[in-house]
Design goal:
With 235 residues, the protein is of the alpha+beta class. The chain is 46% helix and 12% strand. Among the domains are: 120 residues, 2-Layer Sandwich (Alpha-Beta Plaits), CATH 3.30.70; 41 residues.
Length: 235
Amino acid sequence: MAISRAKKTQKVQSLAKELETSTTAIIGTFAKLTVAQDFALRKAIRESGGKYRVVKNKLAPIAGKGSKVEDAFKGLKGVSSVAFTSGDPVALAKGFAKWVGENAEFQFKLGIVDGKLLSVEEVKALATMPGKEEIFAKLLFLINAPAQRLATVLNATGRDLAVVLGQGVEKEKFSAANGAATTVASSAAVPSEAPAAVPASEVPAPVAASEAPAPASEVPAPAEVSEAPAPASEV
């Protein structure tokens, strides 16, 4: 049934507003869908963070003009519908692809992510990639893993040392060492005998200054050696 021009304008404006902030769109087609299937599809898209609309091939390009998903609406033919989101494109592709896998009546046409057009195969491949939440979880695990391993090693070292010490005490393996330590501690505690005090009367008095030896300048020089005796006369 044909719709009025005012109704068309209203639909275009409504879709344009929804597509304004969208960065991902997946275009599909179908032969026929029951009311139950249509309800299940919309629910799957909504749970994936997106919205779902059945669009007119001539009106969709007008609504998408100026948006990041504009190129996905060019040259549409047949029955067309679009799932779009400004959030995680992988989450949308996963939710959409899961529903499509259970409903052969629906098929993908193409997709677009941040202005890059995707083929049907690329849309399916997008659905197999890890989502943002999964990537962030793995990244957080990699960041925290070294600290967690260090804490585990430190805790294990303390526990192991306590177990070894406990077993040693139970088996009295430290008795000899404790005895030696006690002996050393006892000998260290008893001070050695102090040397006997020398009476003050036996301490030699210091040499008086007047009796000090004369300086080297005042010591008399040794006598000069006399001349050697003349040699004996010849016999």
